[in-house]
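As described in the Methods, two query proteins were run sequentially through the folding procedure within a single session, without resetting any intermediate state between them. The first query and its resulting structure tokens are shown here.
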Amino acid sequence: MSIAPNSYSRTRKRLLAAAASLAIAGAVGFGAVATGTAPVLADAVRVEAPQVPGFADVVERVSPAVVSVKVKAKIEPAADDGSDQSDDPDGGMNNLPDNPQLRQFFKQFRGFGDQNGQGGGNRRFSHRDHNNDQPRPVAQGSGFFISDDGYLVTNNHVVEEGSAFTVVMNDGKELDAKLIGTDPRTDLAVLKVDGVGKFTYVDFADDSKVRVGDWVVAVGNPFGLGGTVTAGIVSARGRDIGAGPYDDFIQIDASVNRGNSGGPTFNLNGQVVGINTAIFSPSGGSVGIAFDIPASTAKQVVQDLMKSGSVQRGWLGVEIQPVTSDIAESLGLKSQNGALVSSAQDGGPGKKAGITAGDVITQVEGKDVASPKELARLIGAYSPGKSVDVTVWRDGKNQTIKVDLGTLPSTDKQASADPQQPAAPAKPAALADLGLTVTKSENGKGLVVTDVDPDSDAADRGIQPGDVITSVNSTEVNGTEDVAKAMADAVKSGRKAVLMQITRDDSNRFVALPVAKG
């Protein structure tokens, strides 16, 4: 059978086209094998975005000034009952049952508990080797140089149990240091390294310019790792965590852990804005809440420690409490600023100068007093013997009293009050408007509370049977008629509350109670 020429030609073209298609498919499917050429690859993903500034330049400059602090002490072993075990080389192990596993457990863990100082310190306690009188490690923290001749700052709780101190430089070199002085009230300490040469050091910042939200960098020795850098922001200012009378912490969210104590927190200019001293942590590790001693506080304390090895603070000699809205109303104050004097200590500078219970201290040397904490900081900043003008609110007006400050005792003195006699059981009288039943005290000074209406404002404000009402609106009271008169005077003056001075367990406090208007 013959094929027409035109038909043959068309058939041949179809076959050639099919072969070409197969060749292309083979090239796609087998790549270089089929085609003999290199594969064509897509470019790796790359995003052209603005670069966020880092902390490397700051860290590079400040790191040589930051050190790890190792503390050693001689620790005498003690039995669980407090008795000495020096005659028992096994530390009481002979009293254990004959159980190898139990003995091994106590050998490993007795006396080696890892204790957390203030939240930032890394403390490990151990017994002394009885055949070696050398100090043993008890604590480890951080610190930083503040002068080129070897003065450095750390926390008091890092060094407080130490007898020998070693600082580990950023390059790993270890140097002996001596303790210059400590200040437990602010948890600060100063060490000194001698005879080594010049040191890289850092300076304190003006922390009044630190704002919530500013970037900060913490450098320290968490868990003994050394030279560790973390970053975060300032989370809050003026935190009071109940650590002492001078609480004014800077809160940061940079990761701070045990061993960071005493280490610096820097701003982006490489200046120290705060010193790590405590963390809030349910688990013992960082949860992003750390507290720094402000640079302004540290700078003054450190200068005093370098100069004399201790800090001498002014002392006013008064017990104080906050001014609540009710108290402000009862005294005719327009705000709750100030510190209410609950008592002036006998022999104290304040009482000698004429400050009395019921005064509200509003200014010191023209500086406003916002709270009791602020008053403590202001007075503590002055040297003993300094004469200061103290402005008090008394009898509805301001008065200025000149006080020659004393020296703050090593332990806070408590104001002493005349011991109150037991309440006389006879003839109780009711102060119905206040929800109180009272009777005269046996010594004739004040009224003893014998009963409190549980639904009254007095109960809500914590007044209890046995409390002694000694004054109302700064006027001594010895009978219910004195209280009634003070309440009537308050109403006439347009006040909504009266201020009662209450004595309980030899201490004083003030309570504001609302008065009913007839």
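Immediately afterward, the second query was submitted; its sequence and tokens are:
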Amino acid sequence: MRRLLRLVFIVFTVLRYGLDELAMSGFRQRWVRALSWTVTLGRRFDQPRGVRLRLALERLGPIFVKFGQVLSTRRDLLPLDVADELAKLQDRVPPFPAAKAAALVEKAFGRRLTDLFASFEAEPVASASIAQVHFATLKGGREVAVKVLRPGMLDVIEDDLTLLHTLARWVERLSADGKRLKPRQVVAEFDTYLHDELDLVREAANAAQLRRNMQDLKLVMVPEMIWEFCTSTVIVMERMYGVPISQSQRLREAGVDLPKLARDGVTIFFTQVFRDGYFHADMHPGNIQVSTAPGTFGRYVALDFGIIGTLTEWDKEYLAQNFIAFFRRDYKRVAELHVESGWVPPSTRVDALENAIRAVCEPHFDRPLKDISLGQVLMRLFQTSRRFNVEIQPQLVLLQKTLLNIEGLGRQLDPELDLWSTAKPFLERWMNQQVGWQGLVDRMKNEAPRYAQLLPELPRLLHQALRAPDKAATETAALSALLAEQRRNSRLLLGIVWIIVGFVLGAAVSHWALRSMG
């Protein structure tokens, strides 16, 4: 019943804010316009369409807010008025009351707020779909940021995820592309990551790992977690200073080199993905700032680590080979990799798939981002994948989402950025490290402790291996003898038991006979 009410609430919100009218307004067919006029039922809306869309997403809850956050980075796909309104979802979601936040902090630590902090700012500095952040100062004088989970989040998310799971089952059953798109697996992945985001201790652990990984790169800063003040609902971290990356004019006035900043963002992304297999998967502008302090000038400042993507060694190598083949315009190799990985049926003609990929990708090389619509590229690739029955890989959904975020950030910072030429040298260098002599040396170094332990034991292990057949035969014979002995002992024990039973029965009969005679 609760889920049914949630569905009714979603439909009511769509009608209240006129989202049905927005969805149908893009069609030119007369019958669609007639249907739109019928559905609107004479409703009139005073607010602009972008405002209505943002308010509807805020009212519908965190899953819909995150959807709006992703859309806000794609200004090439949206009207500017809509994109500007959706950008407010990144860090300006209406906050919950400051008194409630203070009560949640005191409940999490079991202490009064004045005992925890020298000062605590009641006004939140940022308010997002899952949590909000307050600045504070510890008793020792260290400035920190306190992140507090929104109350009552779990029930709302559970209801929305249940609806998504149901919708995914319908799509899989009714759609011709249902099996290939794997909607149930994709929703399951989203379910996992969203629940992870509700555990702030997990987010703190994600930040600590990312901080270690990025420490030597000197391009990005990650706040240090204050572990004695970290719980599942409240975490305290080092306070970071920076200018939001969306404020390009402020960055220019501060002297930041925006084209270099765009290239650094690509380097950070590919380093996290291919070197570490551990990447920040929620890189919308609300979570990225730029430091203007003298010692760290021009570095990225990463925030909000609730969603982290991971890749296996096989995923990394496969993706790197695809990217390199793509950058070299070796479309035949791209097609072969799709067949080798099982993403397309084995019966697929490689030359046909090669020609289809070439037709999609070739027109976009050697062009700056401002001249490329990644939305159109993805749409054509989707049409091609449907034709060749390419199966969507759920484990790569977060990577695809993050790649769209990176492309959106790059477009804002430097429309002239050539994404392909920027990424190609990095990937080639990474592949050489993995499959070249340097990669072999590095793997030998990593395995050296194991080799050092195994080498002294090698003669004994070899001797045991050579004796294994004789030992096995000996053990088999011994086992057979033992089983035979056990069978003999069992028969003897059974005989003894029958003797005792017979003796007892005989004694009982004799006793009964003597009593009868007496």
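The radius of gyration is 33 Å. We note this only descriptively and draw no conclusion about the first query from it.
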